[in-house]
Design goal:
Blueprint: H1 3-15, E1 23-28, H2 35-48, H3 67-78, E2 85-89, E3 104-108, H4 123-127, E4 139-144, E5 147-149, E6 165-170, H5 181-197, E7 204-205, E8 210-213, H6 214-223, H7 225-232, H8 244-255, E9 259-263, E10 268-272, H9 281-298, E11 304-308, H10 317-330
Helix pairs in contact: 1-6, 5-8, 9-10
């Protein structure tokens, strides 16, 4: 189906928004410890002439500490309304996963991503195509594997009565002169949208489950085709790339009155394990401990949590141990997604 046809089809489907929509979940997962994946990454880096790891090839981009297990436990416990759960990988499958679960759909990048761009290790590039997963519903919620639910959620937490997506807005401003990659990418996204849609207020989007629709993703391709096609040809994340499902689609939707914003701090928890200031574990450990303590006191008021590595690999055993214990305390019971 062409992008324009998808827009027309999806517009018709969202016009009838009186009933509660059918919603799928899409989870992106990668195991950075997989030697096959490491060989593919190293081969692509060598072909690009990269000697040292960069923003897009840092090990933190591909690390995992069993978050997927707990994300699926949280879905089973707090989000049973999802029709299907699409687990998107490059062919990797966790050994503990129950592949026979009736709602689980194992999905390879090759099932929806242009063959000429594979293999890709660029999460935004992958996100820009997930709406084309065969069989996916018009409404779907996208989660990275470091996101989990903390309390019961329903479609009404992601889509309002008019069918608009609900955006978790981070109230902190974008630092327009910052050299930080996150801010640089937000600026690139703002600039690209303003060139196509005219002046607009840019809203930072919180790390958390992203409410999306196929129609909005199709509209984004019509709005920013050059920027999205460049992502398709870029194997690793770059600091001048646009932010697809954590910036571009939400701000386009807000500009077109196809979204409504809510304050992220009221619904999503966020723990950052590494930041620019963490040049010493003597700073990193107490900061992360403080973040975990604040989260633990507020956890019952929150809908979801993201524990993010940041742009650097976490190399402090105490923090690794603390994060794993936190997950285990939040979700101690095995789910039907596990063998």
């Amino acid at each position: 189906m062409s992008y324009s046809a998808a827009v027309l089809e999806a517009d018709r489907s969202t016009a009838n928004c009186g009933a509660e929509p059918t919603v799928d979940a899409v989870l992106l997962w990668v195991d950075g410890a997989d030697p096959v994946l490491q060989a593919e990454i190293n081969a692509r880096r060598a072909a690009m002439g990269e000697v040292e790891a960069s923003y897009g090839t840092s090990a933190s981009r591909f690390s995992q500490r069993d978050e997927l297990r707990y994300s699926l436990r949280s879905i089973e416990k707090f989000a049973p309304f999802f029709r299907n759960i699409y687990l998107v990988t490059n062919g990797q499958v966790p050994a503990w996963l129950n592949k026979a679960h009736p709602r689980l759909r194992l999905t390879h990048h090759a099932d929806f991503f242009p063959a000429g761009g594979l293999p890709t290790f660029h999460s935004d590039a992958i996100q820009s195509y997930v709406w084309r997963i065969p069989g996916i519903s018009e409404h779907f919620v996208l989660l990275d594997d470091d996101m989990c639910f903390l309390s019961p959620v329903s479609p009404a937490d992601f889509y309002d009565g008019q069918g608009r997506i609900i955006v978790a807005a981070d109230q902190r401003p974008v630092q327009m002169r910052s050299g930080d990659p996150t801010h640089r990418r937000a600026i690139a996204t703002h600039t690209a949208l303003a060139q196509k849609l005219g002046p607009l207020h840019y809203t930072r989007i919180a790390h958390g489950p992203y409410a999306l629709t196929r129609s909005l993703m199709a509209k984004l391709w019509v709005t920013l085709p050059e920027e999205l096609m460049r992502l398709s040809r870029t194997p690793f994340r770059r600091t001048d790339d646009i932010k697809v499902t954590s910036g571009a689609v939400q701000n386009m939707a807000l500009r077109l009155d196809l979204a409504v914003a809510r304050t992220a701090g009221d619904i999503y928890g966020y723990i950052l394990l590494n930041s620019k200031a963490d040049f010493s574990r003597f700073i990193q450990v107490p900061r992360v401990c403080s973040s975990v303590a604040r989260f633990w006191m507020r956890r019952r008021a929150l809908k979801a949590l993201c524990i993010n590595d940041g742009n650097k690999t976490v190399d402090v055993p105490f923090i690794e141990h603390m994060v794993r214990r936190l997950y285990a305390r939040l979700f101690p019971e095995k789910s039907a997604f596990e063998l």
